[in-house]
Amino acid sequence: MTATPKDYLKGIIFQSQNAYKELRRMLMDGFLWAVVSLPAGVFNPYSGVKTSILLLDRTRTKQNDEVLFVKVENDGFGLGAQRREIELNDLPEALKIIEKWKRDHKVTDGKLAHAVSRKRILESPDISLSSDRYRAVAVRGTGGWPMVKLGDVCDFVRGVTYDKNDESSVLTDVAVLRANNINVDSHTLDLSDIKYLRKDVGLPAEKRLRKGDIFICTASGSKNHLGKVAFVPEDTFFYFGGFMGAVRSRKEILPNFLFHLMMSPAYDDFIQGLTAGVNINNLKGSDLLSFEIPLPPLAEQERLVVELEGYRRVIESARQILACYKPTVHIDPKWPIVKLGEIMKLSSGRALFAKNMKPGKYAVYGGNGINGRHDQYFVDAPILVIGRVGAYCGAIHVTEPKSWVTDNALYVTEYLRKVDQDFLALMLEDLNLNRFAKVGGQPSVSQGTVLSQAVCLPNPFLLQRSNRW
Prior knowledge:
This protein is of the alpha+beta class. β10 and β11 (188-189) form a beta hairpin.
């Protein structure tokens, strides 16, 4: 089938194929003078795809060697299915910025807009029209530091690929880390679930994680994981898988300083700009290395790292304090251990389509949390829901009355014995079902896997209720 102009317009901002690059080059050479980026969800409930507006004018393009990028975060309405009116609205200010640019080619709001030279855009690997590609990382300091691309001061090493037959059912000294080994909250290594290969599988030493490496997820079925990083504080014997990579600092930049830059909001915006609208989430090394960062002298990097680490410790301490308020169950070793299959029956939720998402008063629940509201309900009473697939695989939630459960989740259809539902939810949280998930394109857990696990269940029922928490 021959591609139509409409097909090309769908991927004009981010697609990397030659046809798209040539189209963007043509626009840069004689037509494009501004790009207005709208938030994903503007056209809900019909479509959640992120959209950009291209402003074209041959005469205006000849008057200026820069392109204006405007990023609208809010349009006056919530970005969920109901699109309720909210106070935040960037559109009036965005219009003022565009009108001023038309008059004198000056940007008045560095938060909503910035200008980029055509030369710089044409020199980028994919001639991308995503504004976040060209935003500098904001690091507080004396200023005046040169901006460099990540590839100028770092190397990118992609992980190892191996055959399914190379996997071992027993522990060996050939261990491989994958996406689930990055703790996305603390940006540290999570070693609770490691893949082991046969001893005789030969792997190159450069694909082991080294001290100072930034361990990064380069392919994922979930955009919540793509581009996420963890710092490697010391040399390890762990290899990293083919969907992963390591960013290695050269002598010009301190690994700890680079790590903080790759945890910044600018980095997150950059990654989102690369993957906006893409169904298959795959981060190319060349794209990653085009990320621009400030490069202060090494002495200044050391000072900034000390300051940033101080902030991080304060935040981590606050997180630990909050964790202390999480309800816990005081386990009595005399309590019987019962398989979940003896306690409850499960079913997958109902598939959710755009046509179902109509304005309504009932909450819609899925593996990714509340997705919207609906005027029809599937689950009448409060019921226990388990995230089945994706970033919230294994997450536990008790619904509000009259709610929809999507097929991204499992829900309890029947209890086989008397049990306090809130108590069971707490036991399941402590069980951490995500560690039993299968990891392929994205983590998933099946009904059988859940029901085969066991929890402590005190008897009688009153004891469960009296053990609160």
